[in-house]
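A reminder before we start the practical. When you read a complex entry, don't treat the lines as separate problems. The point of joint prediction is that each chain is placed relative to the others, so the output describes one connected object in space. Small molecules and nucleic acid strands, if listed, are placed in the same frame. In the example below there are two entries. Take a minute to note the order of the lines before looking further.
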Amino acid sequence: MSDLALLDRAFANIIQRFVRTGQAPHYTELAKDLGLSMEEGCELVHELFARNVPGWVHPGTDLIASFAPFNNQPTQYRIAIDGHQKWFAQCGFEALAVRWLFPNKTVRVDAPCLDCGEPMVVEMRNEQILHVEPATIVGYTHSAIGGSREDAPFR
Amino acid sequence: MNLFRSEEHARRWKKFDPDMEKTLRPLSFWAELFSEQLFRQRGRPDYMTWLRSGEGRQSVADLWKKMP
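Here is the predicted structure of the whole assembly.
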């Protein structure tokens, strides 16, 4: 089991890689950045999720698929920062938390409605919700928040 | 954990479950909930340690209190 200081470094490395590039690191990249063996890097990824970091590897692999608030696999929640789209949010709710990783930047969420496919837009900057289109947007989940880890990739 | 154009759209969604109706809330509710310190602090270099601090544990507790 890793110590907290190492978990801190791993968490920060993954989040910062997402912020910079829109993508998760592979465990080999994580290992190299942190001065670990490849095997230790792989174990560290799994340990983060075992310690309830909200995310998961793609089932049956060591590949980071999701790491809240981001998703490595594209979702319908496209995120643009100051007009540049290269991020995806883990879910509609986490899309609203992406702004805290981009202080003083305009964060735009573009997503289709799952019922009708028509577009929705939310723009935020720090504390402010700048624009919501349509103004009637709601959030809803049919599964328990923080529920079973087994079905997390399929909610 | 999805966004819909309106309450009517959410209710029409094929996976809508009346048992989870309590989670059907305006965008402003979810935007506020996902503004808890738990989310704001993710960029800090010692986030895993912070989660286990008094402030981190309180933030998790606050979140669960407000969760529908």
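Discuss with your neighbour: The helical segments of chain A are 4-21, 27-34, 38-50, 92-95. What might explain this?
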